[in-house]
Amino acid sequence: MSNIKVENLCCTYGIKTPFERHAVSDVSFEINKGDFVGLIGHTGSGKSTLVQMLNGLIKPTSGKVYIDGIDIWEKPKEIRKFRFKVGLVFQYPEYQLFEETVYKDIAFGPSNMGLSEEEIKERVLRAAKFVGLDYKLLNKSPFDLSGGEKRRAAIAGVIAMDPDVLILDEPTAGLDPVGRNVLLSQISQYQKAKNNTIILVSHSMEDVARVTKKVMVMNKGKLAMFGDTKSVFSKSEELSSMGLRVPQITKVIKALRDKGVNLPDDILTVDRAVAEITELLKKEGKL
Amino acid sequence: MRDIAFGQFYPAKSLLHRLDPRAKILLLIVFIVLVFCTANYYSLLLVILGVFSVVLFSKVPLRLYFNSLKMIIVIVLITSFLNLFYGTGEPVISWGFIKITLEGINNAIFVSVRILSLILISSALTFTTSPTDLTDALERLMKPLTVFKVKVHEIAMMMTIALRFVPLLLEETDKIMSAQKARGADMESGNLIQRIKALVPVLIPLFVSAFRRAYELAVAMECRCYQGGEGRTRMKSLHLHTRDYLSILVVIILIVGVVLCNVLLPQAVR
Fold first, then answer.
1. What is this structure's pTM?
2. Is A169 helix (H, G, I), strand (E, B) or coil?
3. Segments forming the whole domain that contains residue A45
């Protein structure tokens, strides 16, 4: 059974005013358990609205959202249950920290679930470990942390709820390159360890190419493409017509291929490109 | 959260929109005084006519005026209801110790019409004047106070910034609330104390971000060498046009009309 299933989802803002706008229109898709999906799209393409509908923060104007086969709006009173199942990390999540200590802040989600003290403690420590947060920081005030540490603490706050589905909206925005790489590999490792579903919303094609298996492309509120990461990034013309692009390295490889260099056409990461090129050079006896 | 009608500016092309904001503010003050100077139904009617013509001339949808009245209607009802019973003279209706006199009825009508006119006419000002124009005009009007070492420009600048921050902070509140709800915060149920407690996770990040924004804005202003009002010139300087003089004339005629009605025609029983 699919983990997330969405049918004809629509969301319209400002109905019956001059500012009426279709943020998401007629979107349908299915995501299986354990999928690592990238969600890309131009600014204002409806990505944020879409992910907020998946955990019931925004009620769709029409259409249905099923989590594990259950329509989440069937009993509107129990919508909180699905917020624990589908964890959403907002953009710049460090601005939501509020508790006196990092520990208490990470514990906010689990304690809202009504868990026991021991269970909460175990979850907080596990979540901190997953995001690579030093245990020494747990007793500090979240406002004394550095930018990157704050980001980790905020992500840990959602991971501590142990959601079946984890949605991250631009988790690496504003981080330095090293911080970006570390955070991305931690998310990857987390996914491998838990085998749960992850949706990564990002503007960085490199990030998406590096970690995801599948990619969804949103354009003007509609789902424009949904498929394997490789097949989506092979359609560079279509992507650029939507204000998107393929990863830089894919472009470079394509230019090399156009010049007659014998390289495969599905290279999306720099690491893979290095490996392929060294192999090619070795084969031709130039290395 | 976003649909709070906060005397919002409604852009349109009407005579009222084009009037000089200074003239509009002064005329509003005159009008408010005038509303309280009405002594009988004839002058009250004249004022109502004035209010309605302003509302119609503003070309702002009547729905918006209704919305601004909606918030105040309870106060109007309560005050006019209380006024009903506070009158001296012959009771018109008496029921036990409750007496309603003609004076009471008159008072109730006057009070409610006055409050409603006040709201309508001041909404007309905020609907037709952009916040920047408004503070700009206030700065000009308060200029004479510089003699008393009042920092007029700084006050006006603070007002502009405060107005600018209202929609920003609303948006921010929205975002933080969503983020905390995503972590299972329950803001819709529980008793009063639980609900107030549930606001802590929203208020703390909101204050933190308000201070951060204020600090960033201050730095940005200093980077552009902002140093207050001294020696500052403006891009748009305000000038009075024929339409401004005409509207002042209309209001003067209204004042004369109200005074004549008050003096020449019989007083309402009070």
1. 0.76
2. strand
3. 4-246
